[in-house]
Amino acid sequence: MRAVDIIMNKRAGKELTRQELEFLIGGYAAGNIPDYQVSAWAMAVFFMGMTPIETAALTRVMLESGSKIDLSGIQGPFVDKHSTGGVGDKTSLILAPIAASLGIRVPMMSGRALGHTGGTLDKLESIPGYRTSLPADEFKNIIAADGFAMTGQTKDIVPADRLLYALRDVSATVESIPLITASILSKKAAEGTKGLVLDVKFGSGAFMKESAEGKKLARSLVDTGAALGLSVIALLTDMNEPLGNMVGNFLEVEESLDCLEGKGPADLMEVTLELAGRMAFLGGKAKDSAEGRRVCEKTLAGGQPRELFLRNIKSQGGNPDEVLRIRGNYRSPVSAEVRAGSNGYTSGIDAWKIGHACVQLGVGRNRTEDKVSPVAGVQFFAKSGAKVTAGDLLMKVWAADREGLQAALPQLNDAVAYSQTMPAKRNLILEEIS
Ligand code: URA
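^ thats the input. predicted complex w/ uracil below
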């Protein structure tokens, strides 16, 4: 078998066999196939797509590129959540301790910033000392002790996704339904979860721009997940505007803490609680997701999720007291403000433009080897529907360096749309696919 023939077959729109995928992707993970051939293949997949059988085969090949985490010995239920990627989307950080406080075990294997979207691992690593590359035994021990643990793909666990994820990020091959499906589900099957709640985003800040495309992705995830023996519920949610009031690595850790203290912004809380309710349902803690949401609201008000969040920081190498101490001040000295250019209402804050500007600020990466900044990002003071007068503060901005700030500022200004009338309220949750 030759990699070039497999690339040509995909380029011609043929369905690849499990053996071909094993040769190419298994070989890539083993270091036998070079990046340039896999990126050519990924581009062929981007244009030609994959059948459901092929997508499931790719997911299995990626899963089998490493070992699986064996959670036997820990009392379940095991339920995780994953998002297809958005801007300001920090719900995983809030949901994991909420679910854990109900007695659900959350083995969370996440990713880094991808394209213009943020990554849970980068956010967590903005906490000084926090480790996201946990050996399997430590991952299990922390789940047993705290109810949840957060880790990334390693050279032992889904190494194929670790490599492919980074390669897609810099080869314009992120927005592909089969590649997203295999990436997410190989991680989820490897971490050992049984139940999975997916936040499938659509809109300018998502990889799927239209809700119909988002729905296709949700269907692919739910069906492929079922083929792997997972119980999956997907929510199709709106990502036309950043979620919450903060975009940035440590900024989002801070906002997650705000949510756990009952001070979270309404849009972020709405999406978080809808997802949390479904985790409670899949974990057998509620008869349906509506009751699940009520159960989650109650546990949140009791304060235990906040305690678990802080405990997890300690378990994974950070210092919770230090996080509380630097909260509100851990910002880059390179900063600026964005002020309203018109009178009226802000009618939209374009998540795609904000996401791209944040990459310039240092929140995400332009090249695989780029380091992200913990202290860069944007804080919003007016989201859509706010009444503004020209000159009002709309955003505070922090950048890793002055060059990035200068590149981002025009994009940030351009992301804001104005209207003379109050814009209609967005419906954040479009539908459930299960
Ligand atoms: N999240 C992932 O883990 N992989 C993707 O491809 C997109 C979002």
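The longest strand covers residues 195-202.
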